[in-house]
Amino acid sequence: MRTRKGLCYPMVGAIGAGCSGLKRKRAAADSAPAIAGSRRRLPVDNPDMFDSLPDDLVLTILSKLCATASCPSDFTSVLLTCKRFNGLGLHSLVLQRASSKTFAVRAQNWSDSAHRFLKLCADAGNIEACYTLGMIRFYCQQNRGSGASLMAKAAMNSHAPSLYSLAVIQFNGSGGSKNDKDLRAGVALCARAAFLGHIDALRELGHCLQDGYGVRQNVAEGRRFLVQANARELAAVLSTSTAASLLSWTPHSGNNSGTTQSGAGARSTSAPAGCPLLSDFGCNVPAPEAHAANKFLSEWFAAQGGPQGSGLRLCSHAGCGRSETRKHEFRRCSVCGTVNYCSRACQALDWKLRHKADCAPLERWVDEDGDGVENDGVGEANGDVMAES
């Protein structure tokens, strides 16, 4: 195999001859009388074994390192080692295999160089980089067209988070007007993401079928999808190494959860501490870890003090980070009117994690424009009621 310098791998006999010659040189050097104050020097013609390594072997090593890096510094420190690593480390074959943790830069460390590196990964065909950069451009930099195109590029390669994010954009008409909503397209994208194993997409699809939102109503099929979402959530927790210490079983009894009667319906006053929808079945599990792109959005808007624009709001689910692109884009909780969500999946998760203990029915609540909006329903224990803003 030919290296970058045009050298070839030596034959077996040549290797043996070279080794024996090297031994004779070492023996002659050891037998030579030592001169006081002098330093022993290596032969000038001693080749650098690193330079003799072929490029394809170095690319394989760098690709493996880039795919298993736990943080961006694990890979950038290698690029600073030498000129050859810096050149081969930015090869498309290496960047294509980069994991999401390799370019998971914090929002406070965002810079032009981080943007260029993420764009290099996206141009190399890395679908995780396409999704992350697409989310950043669409929501943070307000570059809607470029961000949606990058997410669509990842979605065409069967990237489930990109499919679900595009579904949320279609449900809300993000980046356009209220008339730009395409509910049927959102349901189709959710169905594709759910088929690929995305839990939030499966949960969203179940709610759409239950409510007849963008698809013909089928309550039984919607409930079946919601049960499947809980089962996949449990399987994801059990697959972790610390599942035994994180998972506990507390069977529900008839008198262990109190309810408070208020208004036209009942509201549960007991909220499981730090557990998502699996608490419906008695399993207390930690909340799923948010994607690196959602973490970046949350940190970005926290540092900016909220979305840029008057009256724009963030999704109230802590693990989402999405912001409105126009006023009153997200839907509110029809009970209290104090929280808003980009999707039904975010509402269902936030209800079990936090909002169940804080939601208080109100007879009337006022929006930002000062117009009173009548409460069209009272939240049930599963938080399934949302109202248009």
Automatic annotation (TrEMBL):
Pfam families: TPR_27, zf-MYND. The keyword Lipid metabolism does not apply. CDD domains: F-box_SF. PROSITE patterns: PROKAR_LIPOPROTEIN, ZF_MYND_2. Residues 317-359 form the MYND-type domain. InterPro entries: At2g35280_TPR_dom, At5g50450/At1g67340-like, F-box-like_dom_sf, TPR-like_helical_dom_sf, Znf_MYND. GO terms for molecular function: zinc ion binding. Keywords: Metal-binding, Zinc, Zinc-finger. Residues 370-389 are annotated as: Disordered. This is MYND-type domain-containing protein. The lineage of its organism: Eukaryota, Viridiplantae, Streptophyta, Embryophyta, Tracheophyta.
